[in-house]
UniProtKB/TrEMBL annotation, chain A:
Its EC number is 3.1.4.53. Keywords: Hydrolase. NCBIfam families: P_estr_lig_assc. The keyword Protease does not apply. It comes from the Bacteria. Residues 25-122 form the Calcineurin-like phosphoesterase domain. The keyword DNA repair does not apply. This is 3',5'-cyclic adenosine monophosphate phosphodiesterase CpdA. One of its GO terms (molecular function) is 3',5'-cyclic-AMP phosphodiesterase activity. Pfam families: Metallophos.
Automatic annotation (TrEMBL), chain B:
Its EC number is 3.6.4.12. It is an enzyme of class 3 (hydrolase). It comes from Pontivivens insulae. The gene is recQ_1. The keyword ATP-binding applies. Keywords: ATP-binding, DNA damage, DNA repair, DNA-binding, Helicase, Hydrolase, Isomerase, Nucleotide-binding. One of its GO terms (molecular function) is ATP binding. This is ATP-dependent DNA helicase RecQ.
C-alpha cells in the first residue's frame, strides 16, 4: 500500500491502528491502555478477564516483527493508570521488555500515565523526530507536523445504503491523530466538536478497515 | 375428598354445577395430577377446589403455607387472587390468600417471611427467591399442595426447568406434598405428566365443540412477499365491525405495530382498538388490559404477550395474521374466542403472503385433524442448575450428595450425571479456571462436609439476579415531558440520528436524543417511519408443519383448496423451476443485478437455515465464490455472492458440514448472543447489582469480552459448553439440520433459473439479512469507498 504524505514525511497508516514511518524506521502506537480490565475490576466495575493486556501486546509484537523498527513511540496512555503498571502481570512485563530490547523506545506521557515508569526506555512529554512532533494530546495553534493520540477517533461512512464504522486516523495539513491501539478501547466520533474543532475543513480520515483511502471529513459521521 | 355442603350450596347459588373434571381433581388420591382442559374450562377453580376443601377441613400447619400456586404471569397471580376472593368471602372460609410477585411491596414481603398466608400465589422466580431465605424450611415445611398453572407454557422454557428444581426443594421440606398441573390442550400429555413428577395421573376434560375456523377471504390477493398482512387490513376491519370483541394475533412486535397502524387507517368510525405487546410500557399494557376486561375495546392487536390465560371477557372472534408456525399455539389462541365452556371458538386466519396461504391452509387441515406438533424438550440446562445451587447455599449450607439426589428427582435433570453436577458445583465455588483470580466468582466453600457461601453478603447480589428471563438490552422510549411509550432495542437506538422517525405503540415519533437510559422522542406526522426492532426471537416453523407443507406442495389435488392466484403461483414454479420434495434438496441459482443468488429449499425452519447460511457462506468463501450475505426464512435459505455458485452439490456434504460446524462455532455472533443468557443465569454477569442497574450496553460489552477471552484461554469452561448446547438447539438448531441432512442424503437438484423464481421471491424482501465478512467484503468496501470518493469528485489516493 502506498504511503501518504503528511507534512514532509511519507507515512503508512496500518490496519492495526499503528503508524509506520519507513524513512526513520519508526513505529508509533497510541493509547495502549495496558491493564485496563484490571483497573476497572479494581474500581468495582465489570469484571473483564485480564487478557486485554496480552491481546494488545500480541498485536504490538506482530507489528514489530513485520517492520523491525529502530524506534518505537508509545504516544501516551500506554498504561491505564500508573497503578496498572505496578500490577502488570510478570508475564506481560517480560513480554514488554522483550519487545523493547535492542531498539529505541519512547514513552510519551499521557493523561492516564503522567509519570515515569520502571520499564526503561525514554520518558518524555513530547518527542521531535526529524520534522515531526509526537505528543499525547493535540495542541491548538501548534506548528504543522504534530502527531498525537488521546481522542480514539472513529468514523462511520454510508456506502450504497450500508453503514461502515471503524476506528480511524484523522489528519489535515497540520496534525495527525492516531486511533487507539489497545483492546477494549472505545472511541469518539470525529464529528464530535472536541475533535472536529481541532481540524481544518479539508481534514480527512483513514478508516483502519480500509486505510488506503483518504476520505474527506465532510463525507463521514 | 368430597365436596362439603357449604361448597355445594355456594355452587348452587351461582347457578353452577361443578364440571366432571373439577370433581375428578377433588377425588384424585395420587401424589400428582395433571388436568388438561381447553381455555375457559374452569381449570383454575378445579386446581384450587381441593385446597379450599382441605383448608375448610382444618388441615394446616401453623406458620407454613398450605398451597403454593405458581403462574407464569404476575398479572395472572393477581387476577386469581381477585377471583378467589369472592367465593372465599361468600362461603365465609377462614383463610388468607396473598400474591407474592415482583410487584409485591417490600413490607408485605418481609411480613410474608414470618407470617406466610395459607395460599401463596406466585411466579417461578418469586418462588425461587423465597426458597433462598433462611426461613424457607419453616415457610414451606407444611405445604400440602402445589398448583402449577399454564404448565404447558412453563414446561417449554428454562423457567420450567427452574420451577421443577424448586418443586423438588419444596418436596424436600414438606412431608406430604401433592402436585397439580393445569394445562391447555397439548400434543403429548404424557410428557407433561412426567414433567410434573412420577406417578402423575392425567385427567382430560371434555375438549368442547370443534372450533369454527377458516381463512379470511381478503379482497386483495396476498403479496408475493412480506409478512405484515396489511393488504387485508380493510377486511379485518370489516370483521371487527361485525363482532363484539376481536383479538388479532400477530407473530412479531414490529408487525403488530405496522398492522395496528394499517387497521386504524381503515377505522372510519374510530372504533376503540388497542395494541398490546411486550415492548410497550407497563402502564400502556395495563391500560389496554383494563379496557379489554371492562369490555370497552372492540379489538386488540396483540402478540404472544396476550397468549396466557388472563380472562379478557367476551371475545367472540380470534384473528391470526401471518402463518401460525405452530399448530398447537394456533389451537391455544383459537381457544381465546368464546372463553366460555362448550361454546365453539370462532377464528380466522389471514395469510400475509402467497407462501403463507399454503402454510395457513396446511395448519387449518392440521387443526381439523387435531394433529398437534411440538419439538421435545431436551435435558435441563446447567446454567439454571448453577443458579439453583447458589440460591440453595443462600438459604443454608448444603450437603452435595443430598442436593444431587434432590436435583435428579426433577424430571429435566433426571439424567444428570454426578460429574455434570460436580462441574456446576465447581463453577459455583471457583468461577472456573480462567476466572479463578477473581474473588467475586469464588462463591462457595466446603467446611465440615457442607457447602457454605464464602461471603454471606453475596446472598444479596444472588437474590437480586434470580430468574431465567433476561431483559433484552432495551432502552425506554419517552416523550420529553416524560410520558413513557415503551422500549426499543439498544442496537436499533444506536442507528438513530436526531430527526429520524420510527413507529412505537402505534404512533410515529421523532428521535430527539438519548438522555441517560431513555430515548427521547417528540410527536410527528412523518409518513415513512422506520420500524423499531424489539427483542424476542422469531418463531420457527415446527418440523411437523414443515413436512405437511412439503406434502401439500407435491399434491396438486390439494391445490384446489387454494385461491386461484396462489395455485397459479405454484404452477408457475413448476414451469420455471420445480417443486421441492422432502427427500431431495432443490437448489436454484439465478443472477439478479450485479450479484448471483443461490436458494436452498431445506425446509428445516428459520433458525436451522441461519446456521446453514453461516456454514455454507464460509465454505463458499474458502472456494472463492465471494459470498456477500444470506437471508433465511422457514423453508429456504438464500445466499448471494460475487460469482455464481456452479456446483451446489459439493457444498452439501454431511460429513464436512459437521466438521465445519466446530470451526465457525467459536467466532460467530449467534454464539456471542447466546452466551449472554447462561452468563447471566449462572451469575457470571449480574444484571442487577445492589444500588445500581447495569445498563444494557455495559452488560453487552462485558459479556462479549468475557466470551472472547474464555474462548481463547479457557475453551472448555462450563459456560462455553452450556452456550454450545444452548445454541445447538436454539438459534443454531443443529438437530433440524441433522434431520434435513438425513432426509436429503446428498441428493441435490440444481436448477439454473433465468431469473427470480416464484418460490424464491419472498426471500428477496425478507428482513434479517446477514452480511458475510470476508475477502468479498474487503473488495467491496474498497470499491464502494472508491465509488463514493469518485462521486464526490475526489481521487482515490488522496
Amino acid at each position: 500500500m502506498a504511503p501518504f504524505r503528511f507534512h514532509t514525511a511519507d507515512l503508512d497508516a496500518l490496519e492495526s491502528g499503528a503508524l509506520y514511518w519507513a524513512a526513520e524506521r519508526l513505529l508509533c502506537v497510541s493509547d495502549l491502555h495496558l491493564g485496563k480490565s484490571e483497573r476497572i475490576a479494581r474500581r468495582g466495575g465489570a469484571l473483564l478477564p485480564p487478557y486485554d493486556t496480552r491481546e494488545t501486546l500480541d498485536r504490538l509484537s506482530a507489528e514489530i516483527a513485520r517492520h523491525d523498527p529502530a524506534t518505537v513511540i508509545c504516544l501516551g496512555d500506554s498504561f491505564d493508570d500508573l497503578d496498572a503498571l505496578d500490577r502488570l502481570a510478570e508475564a506481560a512485563r517480560r513480554h514488554l521488555l522483550t519487545l523493547m530490547a535492542g531498539r529505541r523506545w519512547i514513552w510519551i506521557e499521557g493523561n492516564h500515565d503522567p509519570g515515569p515508569t520502571d520499564l526503561g526506555g525514554e520518558h518524555l512529554f513530547e518527542a521531535s523526530i526529524n520534522s515531526l512532533t509526537f505528543r499525547h494530546v493535540a495542541e491548538p495553534g501548534t506548528p504543522p507536523g504534530e502527531v498525537s493520540g488521546h481522542y480514539h477517533p472513529k468514523a462511520s461512512l454510508t456506502l450504497r445504503g450500508r453503514r461502515v464504522s471503524s476506528a480511524c486516523f484523522l489528519s489535515d495539513a497540520t496534525r495527525l491523530i492516531l486511533p487507539a491501539f489497545g483492546a477494549y478501547t472505545g472511541g469518539l466520533k470525529v464529528s464530535d466538536p472536541a475533535v472536529s474543532n481541532l481540524m481544518m475543513p479539508e481534514a480527512c480520515v483513514r478508516l483502519t478497515r480500509a486505510p488506503q483511502h483518504a476520505i474527506p471529513l465532510r463525507l463521514v459521521a | 375428598m368430597t365436596l362439603p355442603d357449604i361448597f355445594t350450596e355456594w355452587f348452587a347459588q351461582q347457578g353452577w354445577s361443578p364440571h366432571p373434571h373439577q370433581l375428578a381433581l377433588l377425588t384424585a388420591t395420587g401424589p400428582s395430577t395433571l388436568l388438561i382442559a381447553p381455555t375457559g374450562g374452569g381449570k383454575t377453580l378445579a386446581g384450587f377446589l381441593p385446597s379450599l376443601v382441605d383448608l375448610y377441613d382444618g388441615n394446616r400447619t401453623p406458620g407454613s403455607v398450605h398451597t403454593i400456586y405458581v403462574s407464569p404471569l404476575k398479572a395472572l397471580a393477581a387476577d386469581i387472587r381477585r377471583n378467589l376472593d369472592r367465593p372465599v368471602r361468600e362461603m365465609g372460609l377462614d383463610l388468607r390468600i396473598e400474591d407474592r410477585t415482583g410487584d409485591t411491596k417490600q413490607s408485605t414481603r418481609q411480613r410474608q417471611r414470618v407470617d406466610p398466608p395459607d395460599m401463596l400465589l406466585t411466579t417461578p422466580e418469586s418462588l425461587a427467591l423465597m426458597l433462598s431465605y433462611p426461613e424457607a424450611p419453616k415457610i414451606f415445611g407444611g405445604v400440602r399442595r402445589i398448583v402449577l398453572d399454564e404448565i404447558h407454557a412453563l414446561a417449554e422454557s428454562k423457567r420450567g426447568d427452574q420451577l421443577s428444581l424448586c418443586v423438588e426443594r419444596v418436596a424436600a421440606f414438606s412431608t406430604d406434598l401433592r402436585r397439580t398441573g393445569l394445562s391447555a390442550t397439548v400434543e403429548d400429555p404424557s410428557a407433561l405428566a412426567r414433567f410434573l413428577g412420577e406417578g402423575t395421573h392425567v385427567v382430560e376434560a371434555d375438549p368442547g365443540p370443534p372450533a369454527d375456523i377458516a381463512m379470511l377471504k381478503a379482497e386483495l390477493p396476498a403479496p408475493w412477499f412480506g409478512q405484515g398482512g396489511r393488504h387485508a387490513a380493510r377486511d379485518v376491519m370489516d370483521q371487527v365491525r361485525r363482532h363484539k370483541t376481536t383479538i388479532i394475533f400477530i407473530n412479531t412486535r414490529a408487525q403488530s405495530e405496522l398492522f395496528f397502524q394499517a387497521l386504524w387507517a381503515e377505522n372510519e368510525e374510530n372504533l376503540p382498538i388497542g395494541l398490546h405487546h411486550g415492548s410497550l410500557s407497563r402502564e400502556a399494557r395495563q391500560k389496554v388490559e383494563g379496557a379489554m376486561a371492562a369490555g370497552h375495546l372492540r379489538a386488540v392487536v396483540a402478540t404472544g404477550s396476550l397468549d396466557l390465560g388472563i380472562d379478557w371477557g367476551d371475545v367472540d372472534l380470534v384473528i391470526q395474521v401471518g402463518a401460525p408456525k405452530n399448530v398447537k399455539r394456533l389451537v391455544q389462541r383459537i381457544g381465546r374466542a368464546n372463553h366460555r365452556y362448550n361454546a365453539p371458538s370462532k377464528a380466522l386466519l389471514v395469510p400475509a403472503n402467497q407462501f403463507e396461504i399454503i402454510e395457513c391452509q396446511v395448519a387449518l387441515d392440521a387443526v381439523v385433524e387435531a394433529d398437534l406438533d411440538g419439538d421435545p424438550r431436551p435435558d435441563g440446562p446447567l446454567d439454571v442448575l448453577c443458579q439453583h445451587i447458589l440460591l440453595t447455599a443462600c438459604a443454608a449450607p448444603f450437603d452435595a450428595d443430598a442436593l444431587y439426589h434432590e436435583v435428579k428427582r426433577a424430571q429435566p435433570y433426571a439424567r444428570l450425571s454426578r460429574a455434570g453436577f460436580e462441574r456446576c458445583l465447581d463453577y459455583c465455588a471457583t468461577g472456573g479456571y480462567a476466572l479463578r483470580a477473581y474473588d467475586r466468582y469464588q462463591r462457595l466453600v466446603e467446611r465440615d462436609g457442607l457447602w457454605h457461601l464464602r461471603d454471606p453478603r453475596a446472598a444479596r447480589d444472588l437474590r437480586m439476579n434470580v430468574g431465567t428471563i433476561l431483559d433484552y438490552n432495551n432502552l425506554k422510549v419517552a416523550y420529553r415531558r416524560g410520558k413513557m411509550l415503551g422500549e426499543i432495542e439498544e442496537g436499533f437506538a444506536s442507528t438513530l440520528v436526531p430527526g429520524d422517525t420510527f413507529l412505537i405503540g402505534g404512533q410515529v415519533v421523532k428521535y430527539e436524543g438519548l438522555r441517560e437510559m431513555t430515548v427521547q422522542v417528540s410527536a410527528t406526522s412523518g409518513k415513512e417511519p422506520r420500524i423499531a426492532t424489539f427483542g424476542g426471537t422469531k418463531l420457527a416453523m415446527t418440523t411437523k408443519l414443515a413436512h405437511r407443507v412439503l406434502d401439500f406442495l407435491n399434491n396438486r389435488e390439494e391445490w384446489t383448496k387454494l385461491p386461484t392466484h396462489t395455485a397459479e403461483w405454484l404452477d408457475l414454479q413448476t414451469r420455471i423451476s420445480r417443486m421441492p420434495v422432502a427427500e431431495r434438496l432443490l437448489v436454484e441459482t439465478f443472477p439478479r443485478g450485479p450479484q448471483n443468488y443461490a436458494v436452498f429449499y431445506a425446509f428445516a425452519g428459520r433458525n436451522a437455515h441461519q446456521t446453514l447460511g453461516i456454514i455454507l457462506t464460509r465454505r463458499m468463501e474458502e472456494a472463492g465464490y465471494g459470498p456477500l450475505g444470506f437471508v433465511a426464512n422457514d423453508y429456504a435459505l438464500m445466499i448471494w455472492s460475487l460469482d455464481p455458485l456452479d456446483t451446489p452439490e459439493k457444498l452439501i456434504d454431511g460429513q464436512d458440514l459437521r466438521a465445519a460446524l466446530d470451526t465457525w462455532f467459536a467466532e460467530n455472533m449467534v454464539m456471542k448472543r447466546t452466551f449472554r443468557i447462561p452468563a447471566r443465569v449462572a451469575g457470571l454477569i449480574s444484571q442487577n447489582q445492589p444500588g445500581q442497574r447495569k445498563s444494557g450496553k455495559q452488560a453487552t460489552f462485558s459479556t462479549d469480552i468475557l466470551y472472547d477471552t474464555l474462548r481463547r484461554y479457557d475453551p472448555d469452561h462450563l459456560m462455553l459448553e452450556i452456550t454450545r448446547d444452548e445454541a445447538m438447539r436454539g438459534l443454531v438448531d443443529f438437530d433440524r439440520i441433522e434431520e434435513f441432512l438425513g432426509r436429503v442424503r446428498g441428493r441435490v437438484d440444481h436448477v439454473e433459473a433465468p431469473h427470480v423464481t416464484p418460490l424464491s421471491a419472498p426471500l428477496i424482501l425478507e428482513v434479517g439479512r446477514v452480511p458475510v465478512k470476508g475477502e468479498a467484503e474487503r473488495r467491496l468496501l474498497d470499491e464502494d469507498i472508491a465509488a463514493v470518493l469518485t462521486e464526490a469528485g475526489i481521487g482515490t489516493n488522496g
